[in-house]
Every structure is written in C-alpha cells, then in structure tokens.
Amino acid sequence: MSDGNFNRNLLPYHDYRSGLRAGRAAMRTLALQAFGRILAQYVENEENRTAALEAFRNELFGE
Fold first, then answer.
1. Pair 32, 50: CB distance under 8 Å
2. Which of 6, 32, 38, 41 is most buried, taking the most CB atoms under 10 A from its CB?
C-alpha cells in the first residue's frame, strides 16, 4: 500500500512509447510477410523477387 509518496513500483512496467514501438515493429513484420506473398504470386524470377523484397524492406525501414 502506498504511503502517499511517489513509488515507482506502483507504475506500469512499460510506458506508452514502448507500446507504440512494439506495434510498429509488428506492423512492419506483417507488411513484409504480405508483400512477400504477393511477390510469390506475381513474380516468377527469384532474383527479381529478392531484389523487390530488399527494396521494399529498405524503404520500410528507411535504410
């Protein structure tokens, strides 16, 4: 029970920003998987598929 003073143990473990980062990471993973499935349907050449997936990954992660 709190004695009225600031006590870090009563605060949630994760802050709001870490939740946003986790959500963004999950969405990026889902986007890469979805784009990979679409490429598998429409691009027969493995080299072109790999190059397109790498370009998408670089665009998505800002590298």
1. no
2. 32
Q: Kindly report whether the global pTM for this prediction surpasses the value 0.70.
A: no
What is the C-alpha to C-alpha distance for residues 53 and 60, in angstroms, rounded to an integer?
10
pLDDT digits (tens, 9 = 90+) for 4-43: 666 666 666 666 677 788 888 899 999 999 999 999 999 9
Q: Which two tokens stand for residue 44?
A: 């027969």
Q: Strand, helix or coil at 23?
A: helix
Give the span between the Cα atoms of 23 and 29, in whole angstroms. 10
53: nearest Cα among 7, 37, 62, 44: 37
